[in-house]
Write a structure and sequence with these properties.
The structure is a homodimer of 96-residue chains. Chain A has 96 residues and is mainly α. Helices cover 55% and strands 7% of the residues of chain A. The structure holds a DNA duplex (30 and 30 nucleotides).
Chain lengths: 96, 96
DNA sequence: GTTTAGGATAACATATGTGTTATCATTTTT
DNA sequence: AAAAATGATAACACATATGTTATCCTAAAC
């Protein structure tokens, strides 16, 4: 529950105990941000992206407002039309 | 060993019609391959990885045998203890 | 040959994501 | 001001992932 907190709360919060938790939060926040950014950069509305991706607008809205953590196939359906994909990389770069 | 090499068959298969489909297949196959590879490189059994990740062994087995497409949080729970994470990258590099 | 360990799988319950349809609130456009 | 577009959300059905527990099969170890 309690999925509706602000991003900063997630990032700076101390209830991210394990590295797994922190990495999960970092990734999901970054993911959502990049997704929204990419969609808006293309000037697409959620409804238009829904058309392109095959994922329905309510599902996209739930993802963008972090009400759900998508499955990887759904995620890719959305990312690819936006010009992105996912990559498995070594856990090293702790940027910023 | 190398019983997972039939993944290549998936990659080269022609029943991937749309770019979205192909990218989805590519990613999922690469993901599973890298996951298995990383686990075995660490000399971990599925049961041991289950302990480390908090994801139960049957779930890991289902993922590795591609009986399910995981959610991103489950995926990260497994990848991080293996030393990996996910990254959103531009859809350009069509390697090999 | 018996034991041990590892991966796969079965069956069921539960959790959660997604589809569907519709609507609301807000902003943008005319 | 009115209309249109946009993101969010509600409610429900359905699909699927995951947990739980147990077992099977195979191969390796002894």
């Amino acid at each position: 529950m309690e999925k509706h907190r602000m991003f900063d709360d997630y990032i700076n919060d101390d209830n991210c105990v394990t590295p797994e938790e922190r990495e999960k939060i970092n990734f999901e926040v970054a993911l959502i941000g990049k997704m929204i950014e990419a969609r808006e950069a293309k000037g697409l509305s959620q409804r238009e992206l829904a058309e392109l991706s095959g994922v329905k607008q309510p599902a996209i809205a739930r993802m963008e407002s972090m009400k759900s953590t998508p499955q990887i196939d759904t995620l890719l359906k959305i990312l690819v039309p936006l010009g992105y994909t996912l990559e498995i990389v070594p856990l090293q770069k702790k940027p910023m």
